[in-house]
């Protein structure tokens, strides 16, 4: 199976342009026979706090149909990030589109300091994804700061742990260390997608990467270029 992390620069306060950007990345991945693609944290809106409610997506938002169609037409599993409104509460989450036309949601469980002002954590949307003989668990950024999260993934016999990030240059080294340790400790492949450019008036660190089950980094992207990290597992 070929998997890809999309490393993108977000467009502030412009979900329509971000959607177009996602579709371009998905089309490029399709030409390279990618089976699964993941985007960074809240990729459809960019990492925003104060603007997140205005930029949020509902569970059955009509704007999401293009991703359902792309998953169907390309036989691809597509994971996009967004602020998601569920039962009047705002969550940091991911929409997961399957090649059979179905959709699932993952919601961030452990929030970064300050995020609780705008978002609610939610443990009720945490699917174990069975795809191409892999058991896949999702995480979003600060989820990995709580060791219980990867431990729970391991207890579910996860073979591929996928993380959507918004990490700055200051924090990326710690994230790298944690993901390497989790990969080795729980013998699972790890794929991480991060931004480049700036979001929320902060620089993003890029360096989207893949670690194998031994905790070794196999491939990483640059710190400043939009790109696709593609690897076969």
Please tell me about this protein's structure:
With 233 residues, the protein is α/β, with parallel strands linked by helices. It has one domain: Nitrilase/N-carbamoyl-D-aminoacid amidohydrolase (4-Layer Sandwich). It has four helices and 15 strands. The protein has helices at 15-31, 65-74, 148-155, 172-186; strands at 2-7, 36-38, 57-58, 77-86, 89-97, 103-107, 129-131, 134-140, 160-164, 189-193, 198-199, 202-203, 209-211, 217-220, 227-232. The model has no long low-confidence stretch (mean pLDDT 97). Helix 1 runs parallel beside helix 2 (65-74).
State the helical fraction.
Answer: 10-25%
Order of helices and strands: EHEEHEEEEEHEHEEEEEE
CATH class: Alpha Beta
**Domain module tally:** 1
Q: In CATH, what is the homologous superfamily?
A: Carbon-nitrogen hydrolase
CATH topology: Nitrilase/N-carbamoyl-D-aminoacid amidohydrolase
DSSP strand tally:
15
State the main characteristics.
233 residues; alpha/beta; Nitrilase/N-carbamoyl-D-aminoacid amidohydrolase; seven-stranded mixed beta sheet; six-stranded mixed beta sheet; 4 helices; 21% helix; 31% strand
Provide a brief overview of the structure.
The protein has 233 residues and is of the alpha/beta class. 21% of the residues lie in helices and 31% in strands. The chain has a single domain (2-232), classed as Carbon-nitrogen hydrolase (Nitrilase/N-carbamoyl-D-aminoacid amidohydrolase, 4-Layer Sandwich), CATH 3.60.110.
